[in-house]
Write a structure and sequence with these properties.
539 residues; five-stranded mixed β-sheet; six-stranded mixed β-sheet; alpha/beta
Length: 539
């Protein structure tokens, strides 16, 4: 069986690189005439050239704060956006529209562009499956996925709208009822969904990181599990092809029975002031002009939403069937819960925890709190879907002057409550003292992981390394780099995600992330608990 890896080395140190999203509850800056403060999905970074041109034409500048799907919906529902933002701009408003407290804060919505979520396969894989010259449905795709005829990467549906849309789309299509999928249909279609998601070999918290990880795998820069394609926005897949960095282009597969399309509504908040309303009107009017729509197509490969503007010529299927989206939050939550607890391949996470003397006081308290939050103590919308999950295997490896003894917890599929309580008790008992052996402990984590992977390779496997300071004991970074080639191939191809917290070496963390194909997360502003949750999207 193929093993799905995301090695998350959560090295909590100070540094320079960041992969963490800002907290949407924090102010985006004071209101200013001609400035639209927008809480948005991170995939909109590619729209900046168009927005720069729009600013010259309209005098309206967009000040973005980026966030994830659930985080944005929760910020709306809790009122965290009130007075801090003028508008939201997500790939879709479908999820927040199903939450009454969020929906009431949504004002005028203007669709700017669109992009369906589709399957992109390497050209050779598509040819081998016979999918280059004919349309296929989600049923055939799921059948071949269940046979492991191909593998793919997809974003976490609790972290990114592309994964969320893919989950809803395939569930609705396989249910075949012609209407939005509900809880009863989810239960009935679960075996077929398990077949479909058995082929997922790469997970990520954002579409951008997923695309880059695929490019590295396809180009042989990473030695992780083979990935034949991606489920992502059409625009992202076309952009990958246009970049010319793949060894072979992706063939886009548009399921004949339908897709879920992102329609990118630039949405004024209900409490926005007059200046913001005027800025929103001027900007949206400009972005819907034929010239601006053509620039959006050329720059981002998304589809236009006004008549008379041509599609990107590489969008080979013009007319698509739109699959129904559940209007009730209960149905969406039931689908997400089923995905994490029963459908997707289970996770294995090894936490390497710094309990050195420098962690005394607030820092060890923050570590305990972050881990306890993952046991279900955080009952927020985000916390519910970023907790430890049924069927998951969690190993704790504390360290100070040297690595400690690992302890493994296996959560059952039925009632994980007793095991979650054990993890909570373990976290509460963490005590600080001693030195800091970062790289000896990371090396030890690989050795601990190797037999676990050999015994059960069919998991998303990750390592989380947490420390608040510079390495002071044992091997240094150079020694770790020199010995990395001897790490067993079964675990060597995993990316390492490093997290900035405290007074550590950002340069070293950047080198670890670059060497392993990972990314750096910043917990200095948002806190350990939020970063721990965010990284769950990559596991």
């Amino acid at each position: 069986m193929r093993t799905a890896f995301v090695l998350v080395a959560l090295v909590v140190l100070a540094g320079c690189t960041t992969g963490a999203e800002p907290d949407p509850a924090q102010p985006a800056g004071p209101a200013e005439p001609g400035v639209l403060r927008v809480l948005a999905g991170s995939e909109l970074t590619d729209l900046q050239p168009v927005l720069d041109e729009a600013a010259e034409a309209t005098g309206v500048r967009v000040r973005f704060t980026f966030t994830g799907t659930l985080e944005g919906a929760e910020a709306l529902a809790k009122g965290d956006v009130d007075g801090k933002y003028d508008a939201v701009w997500f790939s879709s408003n479908r999820y927040p529209a199903g939450i009454p407290e969020a929906a009431k804060r949504l004002g005028n919505q203007v669709k700017i562009m669109s992009s369906p979520v589709v399957l992109g396969l390497s050209a050779s894989s598509a040819r081998a499956l016979g999918w280059t010259d004919r349309r296929v449905g989600w049923g055939e795709i799921a059948e071949q996925a269940g046979r492991r005829a191909f593998s793919y990467g997809m974003t976490d549906p609790s972290a990114s709208n592309s994964g969320f849309s893919a989950l809803v789309g395939v569930a609705s299509a396989l249910a075949g009822a012609g209407n939005a999928v509900d809880a009863a249909q989810i239960a009935a279609v679960t075996p077929r969904l398990k077949d479909f998601f058995a082929a997922q070999s790469l997970s990520a918290g954002s579409s951008g990181w997923l695309s880059e990880a695929y490019r590295r795998r396809a180009s042989g820069q990473d030695t992780g599990a083979k990935v034949d394609g991606l489920i992502n926005y059409e625009s992202v897949l076309l952009s990958l092809n246009a970049a010319g960095t793949l060894p072979e282009p992706l063939t886009l597969v548009y399921p004949a029975d339908g897709v879920v399309t992102a329609d990118y509504p630039l949405t004024l908040l209900a409490d926005a002031g007059d200046d913001a309303r005027d800025a929103h009107r001027r900007l949206t009017d400009h972005l819907r002009t034929p010239e601006a729509q053509r620039r959006i197509v050329e720059t981002t490969h998304r589809r236009p939403v006004v008549p008379g503007v041509d599609l990107d010529p590489r969008s080979t299927v013009r007319d698509l069937v739109e699959l129904p989206f559940p209007a009730a939050r209960d149905s969406v939550d039931a689908l997400l819960s089923a995905y994490f607890d029963r459908i997707r391949r289970p996770s294995r996470t090894l936490y390497v925890l710094d309990t050195s003397g420098s962690m005394a006081g607030d820092r060890i308290a923050a570590l305990r709190s972050a881990l306890i939050g993952l046991t279900g103590a955080d009952d927020s919308l985000t916390g519910r879907f970023r907790r430890f999950r049924s069927r998951e295997e969690v190993t704790m490896l504390p360290f100070d002057t040297e690595p400690g003894e690992p302890r493994t917890f296996t959560l059952p599929e039925g009632d994980p409550g007793p095991v979650l309580a054990e993890i909570r008790s373990y976290a509460e008992g963490l005590e600080e003292g001693g030195g800091t052996a970062i790289y000896d402990s990371l090396s030890r984590a690989y050795r601990v992981m190797e037999p676990l992977v050999a015994a059960d390779p069919d998991r998303f496997t990750s390592i989380v390394l947490m420390t608040d300071g510079e390495n002071a004991n044992g091997s240094d970074l150079s020694g770790f780099e020199a010995s990395f080639g001897s790490v067993p191939a079964s675990v060597r191809g995993v990316p390492v995600f490093t997290v900035l917290f405290g007074e550590g070496s950002g340069d070293e963390l950047g080198r670890v992330a670059a060497m392993t194909g990972g990314e750096v997360f910043d917990a200095r502003r948002t806190g350990l608990g939020r970063v721990f949750q965010e990284i769950r999207g990559y596991q």
